[in-house]
């Protein structure tokens, strides 16, 4: 059983290696074709007059810059979409914080210090035990909301 498992793993690795080699060979072939095209274009430009060579070089540079510009515009659009998404998330979180702060101010003043003392005690003892928490019945929705957030 172990030998068969090792043989299967070895065959899988061999197959993956062959697939990688094939992909690399295809990539090399494409690069060689591109290199040949560039060499032919270079030889053709050498046969042209100096003025035409300059014009051809400028055309190639314009094409390259145009393609680079299009890539940068595409990247800019992606970044702008991401910025909009992040701004929406920020607004949502700011609204949640405002709602939370508003709910905190609605708690009666005489219970707020008691509530803070309970939170401090729970935070200190949190590491030591897990247990029950005392709360007022009317604070239950607030407590549940705070637990969820």
TrEMBL record:
Superkingdom: Eukaryota
Coiled coil (UniProt feature): 3-103
Alphabetized UniProt keyword annotations: Coiled coil
Protein name (record): MYO5B protein
Species whose genome carries this gene: Cardinalis cardinalis
Source lineage: Eukaryota, Metazoa, Chordata, Craniata, Vertebrata
